Amino acid sequence: MELTITQPDDWHLHLRDSDLLHAVVPHSASHFKRAIVMPNLKPPVATTAAAITYRESIMKALPSGTSFDPLMTLYLTDKTQPDEIKLARESGVVYAVKLYPAGATTNSQDGVTDLFGKCLPVLEEMVKQNMPLLVHGEVTDPSIDVFDREKIFIETVLQPLIQRLPQLKVVMEHITTMDAVNFVESCKEGSVGATVTPQHLLLNRNALFQGGLQPHNYCLPVLKREIHREAIVKAVTSGSKKFFLGTDSAPHERTRKETSCGCAGIYSAPVALSLYAKVFDEAGALDKLEAFTSFNGPDFYGLPRNSSKITLKKSPWKVPDVFSFSFGEIVPMFAGETLQWQPLN
């Protein structure tokens, strides 16, 4: 059995830099036409000039003959100025601004500490420039239970933000809860959307502990209860236009995951399309896969849909245990397991 769909885009991707960038970008470029590239490098990509430089690095790392198009983002800080948003829009290469609450995830220490106080003029300029705000939707108060941080963020930050700036386009990134599903579904179509990862569709929090501590299933936002996973699957396979593909593929060298204080992030780029197809196939909704992977994202961003196609074949294949590089190894999601759907490059 084969399924041919419009070539997808990845609306939430971590490509890193230096050796890691060169190692991982071919995996994304082989399946996806475009990707929203996250800006949480060290130092963060906080200016248009830095975004242009980073994009040039990505283009140099691409295999020859690849038409992959990295769509850049800016890292929002307490010091970001409205003029930077104007520069970003004029650049033609920056497509969104990313909100990391300070301390929420990998390399987020430079993130926002006071969204409504220090960032309001920037947000108002984003409305004028029709520049989407991409939100890592978790509070960082250490007194809040880690499994409740998305729900509390919606209540204390996101709902007030939408009420204050109803014209601001917002993407709630890598949603993990029924609360997020309900919030996005309650918002006006075209104003608030959400990206969804393979891990939050396929795994619940048991996957962190089965057979021992599983560092390669550790990501932020952390995996949640089964009821939340089921709610997300139901939402994305319903045909709603508000949800779209964003892998949050986040590579780390193996020893940075398998250590006393391991990094958050799941490397899904090589297997993501196979896993999304698995989800939709098991839900009896393969007819809705293409909209989720290839239509809803560009429609939300106001960009043209891709004209290129990709074919998925139902043919069992084994995911490599590791990908080996000169600097070390990266363990992919579902390492060593057999998947049923495979993209044909």
UniProtKB/TrEMBL annotation:
Gene3D superfamilies linked: Metal-dependent hydrolases (3.20.20.140)
The family note in this entry says: Belongs to the metallo-dependent hydrolases superfamily. DHOase family. Class II DHOase subfamily.
- The enzyme class is hydrolase
State which gene encodes it.
Answer: LOC104718010
The chain positions of domain Amidohydrolase-related read: 10-331
Q: In which pathway does it act?
A: Pyrimidine metabolism; UMP biosynthesis via de novo pathway; (S)-dihydroorotate from bicarbonate: step 3/3
Which HAMAP family does UniProt cross-reference here?
A: PyrC_classII
List the PANTHER family hit by this protein, alphabetically.
DIHYDROOROTASE
InterPro entries per the record?
A: Amidohydro-rel, DHOdimr, Dihydroorotase_CS, Metal_Hydrolase
Q: Which domain of life is it from?
A: Eukaryota
Q: What is this protein called?
A: dihydroorotase
What species does this protein belong to?
Camelina sativa
Answer yes or no on keyword Metal-binding: yes
Q: Which UniProt keywords apply?
A: Hydrolase, Metal-binding, Pyrimidine biosynthesis, Zinc
Q: What Enzyme Commission number(s) apply to this enzyme? A: 3.5.2.3
